[in-house]
Amino acid sequence: MKPFEFQRATDPSEAVATATADPGTRYLAGGTNLVDHLKLGITAPERLIDITRLPLDGIEELPDGGLRLGAMVRNSDLAAHPQVRSRYPVLSQALLSGASGQLRNAATTGGNLLQRTRCVYFQDVTTPCNKREPGSGCSALGGYTRYHAILGASEHCLAVNPSDMSVALAALDAHVTVLGTDGERSIPVTEFHRLPGDEPNRDTVLEHGDLITAVELPALPAGTRSAYRKVRDRASYAFALVSVAAVVDFEDDGGAGTSAGPPTFGTVRLALGGVAHKPWRATVAEEALRGAPATEENIRQALEAELAQAVPLHDNAFKIPMARNTATAVLRELATGSGTGTPTPENREQP
Amino acid sequence: MTVQHTGTAGQDLERIDGVAKVRGLAPYAYEHQVDNPLYLHPLQATISRGRIETIDTTQAQAAPGVVAVMTHLDAPRLAGTDDAELAILQSPAVGFRGQFIGAVLAETPEAARAAAALVRVEYTEEPHEAELRADRDDLYAPEQVNAGFPTDTRDGDPESAIAAAQVVVDQTYTTPFEHNNPMEPHTTVAQWVGDELVLHDSTQGVHPVRQTLAPVFGIAPEKIRVIAPNVGGGFGSKGVPHAHVVLTAMAAQRSNGRPVKYALTRQQMFFLAGYRTPTIQHVRLGADASGQLSGIIHDVIEQTSRIKEFAEQTAVPARMMYAAENRATSHRVAKLDVPVPSWMRAPGECPGMFGPEVAMDELAEACGIDPIELRVLNEPDIDPESGKPFASRHLVECLREGARRFGWADRDPQPRSRLVDGWYTGTGVASSTYPARRQTGNTARIRHDRAGRYSVQIGAVDIGTGAWTALTQIAAEALGCNAADIDLQIGDTDFPVATVAGGSTGTTSWGAAIIAAAQAFRDRHGDQPAVGAHAEGEAGENPAAQEYALHSFGAQFAEVQVHADTGEIRVSRMLGVFSAGRIINPRTARSQFLGGMTMGLGMALHENSVMDPRFGMIVNHDFAEYHIPTNADVRDMEAVWLDEVDEHAGKLGARGIGEIGIVGAAAAIANAAYHATGIRVRDLPLTADRFLA
Lengths: 351, 693
Ligand SMILES: Cc1cc2nc3c(=O)[nH]c(=O)nc-3n(C[C@H](O)[C@H](O)[C@H](O)COP(=O)(O)OP(=O)(O)OC[C@H]3O[C@@H](n4cnc5c(N)ncnc54)[C@H](O)[C@@H]3O)c2cc1C
Ligand code: SF4
What we know:
The complex is a heterodimer. In chain A, strand 11 and strand 12 form a beta hairpin. Helices cover 27% and strands 19% of the residues of chain A. Chain A is built from 12 helices and 12 strands. By secondary structure, chain A is α+β, with helices and mostly antiparallel strands. A 5-stranded antiparallel beta sheet of chain A has the order 4-5-8-6-7. Chain A has a 4-stranded antiparallel beta sheet with strand order 9-10-11-12, with helices on both faces. Chain B is α+β, with helices and mostly antiparallel strands. Chain B has 3 domains: 18-28 and 439-541, Aldehyde Oxidoreductase, domain 4, CATH 3.30.365.10; 32-126 and 183-233 and 239-272, Aldehyde oxidase/xanthine dehydrogenase, a/b hammerhead (Aldehyde Oxidoreductase, domain 3, Alpha-Beta Complex); 144-178 and 276-436 and 547-691, 2-Layer Sandwich (Aldehyde Oxidoreductase, domain 4). Helices cover 23% and strands 26% of the residues of chain B. Chain B has 16 helices and 28 strands. A 7-stranded mixed beta sheet of chain B has the order 3-5-1-14-11-12-13, sandwiched between helices. In chain B, strands 9-17-16-15-10 form a 5-stranded mixed beta sheet. A 5-stranded mixed beta sheet of chain B has the order 18-19-24-25-28, with helices on both faces. The longest helix of chain B has 20 residues, at 506-525. Classes of the chains: A alpha+beta, B alpha+beta. The A-B interface holds A 1-3, 39, 41, 118, 120-121, 123-124, 126-127, 139, 142-144, 146-147, 229, 231-239, 241, 318, 321-322, 325-326, 328-329, 343-344, 346 and B 46, 64, 110, 113-114, 117, 267, 421-422, 563, 565-568, 570, 605-606, 610, 612, 614-615, 617, 619-622, 624-625, 627, 629-633, 687-689, 692-693. Bound molecules: flavin-adenine dinucleotide and iron/sulfur cluster (SF4). Flavin-adenine dinucleotide (FAD) is lined by residues 26-34, 36, 51, 71, 75, 98-99, 103, 106-108, 110-112, 114-115, 162-165, 211-212, 239 of chain A.
């Protein structure tokens, strides 16, 4: 680890001014991702600004019925918040499916949004990686790709975004509030993360020095149901192979599970995790399902249509049926009101 | 009248080191207080084969806090270089990626690590080979396989027997590269005091480290002291000293007498601490319609490192497990430009009971009989390998007892017939076995310290198994006193010679020496010894091993659930029933069995070191990417054992329990997964993608 200067921010604007002026400066939040990167030599900043003492750790109700989540709120606290649990179960479930209890106690909302890929080559500085070292090549091409993208990848990078929380936020149409030198701006989560294109070193649309101050969740119409389901290689403490965040309402206002047959979808917001360089909003499937009866057949077809654009790699063709089946199961369960979309007992970790 | 002493062998005694460990007071290698230490960070090769042309350390030398940078250009010359794994920094040659090519010594670990990143190395690369495939044309038959077993065996004419058999199973099974990954990383603290080397080492054997290093450094074994009172797991990977011990001791020759500390990072452990070879197992079974085996063939392909041979004895259990007139086993090995494989919990038996035990499940299905009955039907009367009678073979009892406890009788053999809350659910069984060996070369010393209190010394090591407790209990029983009257002293070469904590031999071999010492003590000093009275005892071979085949046996049962939508696989229930001779302490024994079964669960579902042959590197080299079971993966797991004393296993009557818990566990789970889903997966690990429809 290269020696660096350490400083503690007390004022957001000051922190932004300092960081923007110096390309060698990075923010330190929970440190659960950044400190690993320092040790592994993935990044070697000259200065770290600890932002955890900034007054950005509140959760407030917004006038329009939404919720404002401070960037410094710890993942555990966010998952356990009564408003989040009752109104946005998809978010609470996504957070609880990530990492471990200890990590969630340290990890912050802002840091989680900005966690970097777990691509094994990105994390090993002895191998080429365009994301870590632009122009050096992509070792995953022709390499180990079990955890890589099936959607939206480029020849320059096949990596996926590993965050669970971000997938839920994408499905919720949340916004990220960012403080730059020009003041605050609001970016939809769906536009916050980028596809790799020919600049895989850029994970998001942020500029150097931008500080995430909050995430805003919109109010949801009455009768909205949501769920997060993560499929992984072990019961806990593993990154997603595939995950699904769904936020749906029904035209017949929740006639779910009645003997009259399946209800009719109103709006369907569906995001897939573990499949792309950003949380993948399944807009093709959403479009197909809007106003459609929530039959197994319809749901499956909608997902087949969504995944028709998928391009599997050497080790991950299974993600296509896995994403289809998992999303189908989540939507089926939301429609029939059976379960929470998290049928594995071990998934129901209590905060 | 017999006096009942407390805490003697067989009793449920709490770990005597437990409180200190829970309170963080039990020092592990890195935590021993040494004066004014230096910290080492290694330089590692980034090619798989070739030679170093230039190595520029100027920047590193000048970095803050750096005391020395050592490379092959200036490292001390080693006296013994026969073991190529240990002969580091003696030439510019590179044998595998990740191999040590130097070290930085600095005032802090951070400074050493930062400076190591500043060293520039240029190589001439040679083409390397890092991929084990069955179709390689350079497979060879080693002279022998690990533990001295013959490479190949042949009885009768198995090919013809199988060709003529009514029912045949002919399948290939594979197990992947696996890394031992004990929680405590490999760690060495080295200091030269005059011409003496003192090591605090995380090892499975202090005396073996001394004996291995003495010729490497060209000094008498007595000039090396190795200390290891507590070790956080080894699973075989600390059974022999690996190159980091040599590197640290060499660096300590350049530190002006200051101690040098080095703990491998988790990532480094995937290159430098041994691992289990991947195996490709071709299993052929021939049987009549009733399931009676006529022929068994187990042909294994595996790998070793080009620089040093370690050939795992994978086909060995097939030589003794079931009766068959005709049988052949073989091992063929590829020499690759990869790190050096080594022992990993139950080398041989663990991978070698995967292929055949799944094949037995397939045979049972083909014959339309219950897999337990198939095994019972093929019980041998005598050991098929040696022709000797078994000292004790209670496999059938284990299977029957397990069946009773597990509720096997209610099982519908039809695969994919139970869907419970969206999970296909099934059960499976497999046999387990492990040989009972006693190591010679163990001596214990007993001294009567003060009225009624005895110190018992032996240079054994507790690697987390419970040896502190079990040996205390054995000593108490042998001396006829309470466990609380024993002051056990282990983990130091200052204590009498002892063999490695490996091969499930520790308790029995060290215990035999303690019993011998106690006998010598009582013979000489009687029941009223003077304070200061002492005696030594040495354990020889177990004479019964001449006449009998000594093995432990077990039955593994698993219930597996596979999610109908996602393919996720979970082991909802596991039961192991073991016959392992006398149990010295039910509490620590249970945790050994459960630990083994848990590791078997990991082998079944998770463990997989992914080799990228282009780089010759394991790419998923940390705990986020290399999966072992978490608590949530281990659900209802139970281990029980037959109440038994093996009269042929020496005075102690025990056979050793460290490894049998892992053997057969993966096969039982794979068989249960088949029963759950109707999908037969023959390649480990069993991941969700294999079960997706
Ligand atoms: C072993 C392991 C397993 C894990 N498993 C999962 C998992 O299953 N699912 C999952 O989703 N995650 C998982 N994680 C990742 C974890 O969620 C992230 O590490 C964590 O959310 C990052 O938050 P942090 O506050 O610690 O960020 P830090 O490490 O402090 O920062 C991360 C990055 O964000 C920047 N940053 C932080 N806050 C701000 C801000 N307010 N404004 C601008 N920039 C900022 C930092 O400069 C840095 O670049 C795992 C991590 C580990 C180590
Ligand atoms: S996939 Fe992306 S992160 Fe991984 S090696 Fe390629 S460029 Fe780097």
